[in-house]
Amino acid sequence: QNELDFSAPTLGDDTTHLEEEDTFDMNEKSQESINYIKANMNIEIHKKNMNTVTGRSSVASSIAPKHKTGSVPKYLKARQAKWAEDAAQLEAAIPDPDCPPGHVKLNDEERVNQLGQMTTKHADLLQDLHRLPVSSDTRRVV
After folding, report:
1. For residue 46, what are the contacts with CB-CB under 8 A and spacing of at least 6?
2. Which of 38, 41, 71, 111 could form a disulfide with 106 if both were Cys (CB 3.0 to 4.6 A apart)?
3. How is residue 107 annotated by DSSP?
4. How far apart (Å, rounded) are the C-alpha atoms in residues 114 and 140?
5. How far is residue 57's CA from residue 60's CA, in Å, rounded to a whole number?
6. What angle do CA 85, 86, 91 make, to 5 degrees?
């Protein structure tokens, strides 16, 4: 008959004397609400104080140069200048709508210089043309 008796299950010697602290209530918050932002700020302040006391600085602050607050860094100024230069080159590369395709628009100085060269060349060619004989000896039947 002992085989048919059911007894309450036991989980070992440690669980026979349960106290209030050992139990877990799902409705009760297990931790107090923590302000993590404030805790992180306190940690940073503590680190800064430790750095000033020990005289050491972090590796990141020793590698990176000190930046003046409120000023634009040099690398950003260089990028802005490059962007402006690229924009000017793109604008200069746009073809003039008044100039036909295959032609190049000249500035005034180049235009006057080129026009002078062309007029002198034209005058030389006309002189050569006037030196050619006008009469030609041919046989013709009258």
Report:
1. none
2. 111
3. P
4. 47
5. 8
6. 100
